Amino acid sequence: MACDVSLLAGIHFFDLLNEENRKTLANVIDSTRLKDGEILFHAGEPGDALYIVRSGEIELYIKDTAGQKIVLNVAQPGDFFGELALLDQGPRTATAAALADSELLALGRDDLILLFQKNPDAALHMLASLGAMTRKADELLRTRVSRNLNVEEEETLTFGQRIADRVAQFGGSWTFILLFAMFMVGWMATNGHLGTGALDPFPFILLNLALSALAALQAPVIMMSQNRQSSKDRLKADLEYEVNLKAELEIAHLHEKTDRLYEALVDRLTRLEKVQKASSG
Fold first, then answer.
1. Domain span holding position 246
2. Chain segment 126-180, per-residue pLDDT in tens
């Protein structure tokens, strides 16, 4: 339904419009309300309107291939969203959901053309917003990690692999070195003091046997842990390559789409300027 002209007050999009132009737009702009948690549209749906937040908050998000939610933006009062699908007539690129009871103003393609005719600066404001979105997407792609290999690795570890990791961790610590040194010194001191009646007299053949058995068992366990770490490093390198490739492709796609939108808006503004000059002449 058409909105009241008072709803356009205080919104940056309509700041430069006079009262008559605001009344004209108010007759064609629709007003809609959303309850907390309500979905406005889903990613992939056809887009036929741009929305301006009058009150409340709207969360824009997507889900990656792993099903994780990625929040792209939270539109506050005065912000607009949904312009990409409206301008290039493609599907929605994200899902929009209300974080609180919200009131929105909806502009269709014809409404947007009328707004640009009344206020050409609104087109520049939209271009600036598109640039900000591209920058935010670039930053998101640089910092976003698709998968956490440490978590995935921990979830798939077998009991034997967990034991191998703990043995390798303990065997390479100062705690093990100090405890083992104290044991050896105590063993040799005790048996050396007792002489021929000791359990393991000099040259401590039993101790040598125990040390050889310990080394023989510990070495393959440590190698198991190292081999698994090498496999984890290879997976990490493959994941980094996939993430970098995906980021490169997504950034190129975003820049290409922004360039197309910029060319379309400049062409439309040029035609509008010619029409205005012809009408005024």
1. 149-253
2. 666 666 666 666 666 655 544 556 666 666 677 777 777 787 777 778 888 898 8
Beta bridge partners of 25: none
Q: Of 215, 110, 127, which Cα lies nearest the Cα of 171?
A: 215
Q: Which two tokens stand for residue 138?
A: 């670039």
Both 12 and 100 in one domain: the answer is yes
| % of the chain with per-residue pLDDT over 90 | 4
Burial (CB count within 10 angstroms: exposed 0-12, middle 13-18, buried 19+), residue 21: middle
SS3 category, 94: coil
| Domain end marker among 102, 119, 136 | 119
**Residue 132 phi/psi, 5° resolution?**
-65, -40
Copy the structure tokens of residue 125. Answer: 């404001």
Q: Which helix (H) or strand (E) segment is 279 a member of?
A: helix 205-280
